[in-house]
Design a protein that fits this description.
Blueprint: H1 11-25, H2 31-46, E1 52-61, E2 64-74, E3 80-86, H3 93-103, E4 109-114, E5 117-122, E6 125-131, H4 135-147, H5 151-184, H6 186-202, H7 209-229, H8 235-238, H9 240-252, H10 259-263, H11 267-278, H12 283-301, H13 303-309, H14 316-334, E7 345-347, H15 354-362, H16 368-375, E8 376-380, H17 383-401, E9 410-412, H18 429-440, E10 445-448, H19 469-480, H20 494-505, E11 510-517, H21 527-536, E12 539-546, H22 557-560, E13 569-576
Parallel strand pairs: 3-4, 7-8, 7-10, 8-9, 10-11
Antiparallel strand pairs: 1-2, 2-3, 4-5, 5-6, 11-13, 12-13
Helix pairs in contact: 1-2, 5-7, 5-11, 6-9, 7-11, 7-17, 12-13, 12-17, 14-15, 15-17, 19-20
Length: 581
Amino acid sequence: MPYLKLKSNSQPIQTFYREIKEKQQFSFLHEGAVAPHFSKLLQSCGRQFNWTLIEQYPLARKGQHPLKADGALLDEFKLVHGLWEAKDTQDDLPLEVKKKFQAGYPQDNILFQAPERAILYQNGALAIDTDITNPANLVDTLKLFFEYQPPAYEQWELAVEEFKDKVPDLARSLLQLIEDERKYNKRFVQALDDFTELVRQAINPNISISAVEEMLIQHLLTERIFRRVFNNPDFANRNIIAVEIEKVIQALTSRHFSRSDFLGKLDRFYGAIETTAATIDDFSQKQAFLNTVYEKFFQGFSVKVADTHGIVYTPQPIVEFMVRSVDDILQQEFGKSLGHKDVHILDPFVGTGNFILRIMQQIPKTQLPHKYAHELHCNEVMLLPYYIAAMNIEHAYFELTGQYRPFEGICLVDTFELAEGKQMSLFAQGNTERVELQKQTPIFVIIGNPPYNAHQVNENDNSKNRKYPVLDKRVAETYAKDSSATNKNALSDVYVKAIRWATDRIGEEGIVAFVTNNSFVDQIAFDGMRKHLEQDFDEIYILDLGGNVRKNPKLSGTTHNVFGIQVGVSINIFVRKRRVF
């Protein structure tokens, strides 16, 4: 149970009263004058629990415009632990509370605060109504507010702690099972060999058998989440990649291994995910919760893979800004929109689907069915994010239209491999057909967050970053050739290859919008790249977000960088118009 360490003489309390007193001297006790000081007090208390106060937090209402709370306390999994509403001295606070509840504000744990009074509702009932000019009353109110915990959250936090310890042991046990079955189970050996060949053809010809085995383990440990949290009991039969993996799993379990018995050790964790997700009504908030669950699981279970691929998921405000900006530029420069027919949109590094989901929200509902079926495309090279993206996108479509429809625009493929000009079987027949269709499609908008990592931690690791002869040659004959730098190693960064690939992919006109490492903006090694970007595009918009911790040791990746990483970040939108001669 959370416990707030706070007393009447604690510094945050004393600071709050001192600042209020200063405002009182000037008769400034309206909401806008007082709220920032109470916000600061809430932030100070929240730091004890690693909670963040998000101001102007949207509260979704089905079929209606969202409400907004003055503040919401969120934990690392994006779960809301409390809401705050600030009011004026002149306000009739009980009447204001009544109005808010009539409008649909939740009553689980919500604090209404005026300069001299606070009303707290918990679990639908009045918990406290008190004069907070008395420091002891204020402390009691804040303790009640911060220490409240819904039963589902308590179960969730206990399960997370257990999961951290159990999942590595379970993964090792599954790996041992796979090794044992390879010795004695001929059916499994054949199925695994067939599956490995599929993976090597579709994703990476150099992929190690251990990486393939890890894919099986990831599928086994997470398949239930996809079925139950997304309410898709037929997931393993509907998803064209999951179907292929299930063939191997069935062979693995053909002798004596029971999947349900083995995974029973994680029942409490699975149950906690399902119960906690059920407490979240808003789909985007549920998605944020599940994405965080995924990130923590994946990066804890597969640190090397996470590092090699540069797994850093895009904060929602950046996704929001980029999608709206691209839509505005489409209208200004081309007289089109994201929903316009024949504007094909591709996220080549889809991750868990954030960009496609936000684009779907931007498209008018009358245009969405056609867009969803024919003109939205995305690729992912890693299994778990591919699963989650497919489920997220299909579920979002259901939420927006009320109809379930499988999303056929997603491919399990290495995007850079598509530039190599090879004809290959890409996993399953359905996946191959999707990839070939995408290759033949004229793409107008490319948007996303490319991987950022150029070099893995261990250069001897089997999963080191791939070489792409065609794409590497394009970088060499353009960006590198026209660079005056002596050391051009930085041009090997994956995000540089992504920009080169996207520049070539959009054709005579279109938009490329990426959030990337910002080193290309001013570093000498990228002078040739800047020259070609100027030649290749008619308009370039760069929003440099800074945050290069390596250049400035005074900065902190956790507080000065939008991704919480060490390298600087920029949002880049490149616009190409058809040339008329």
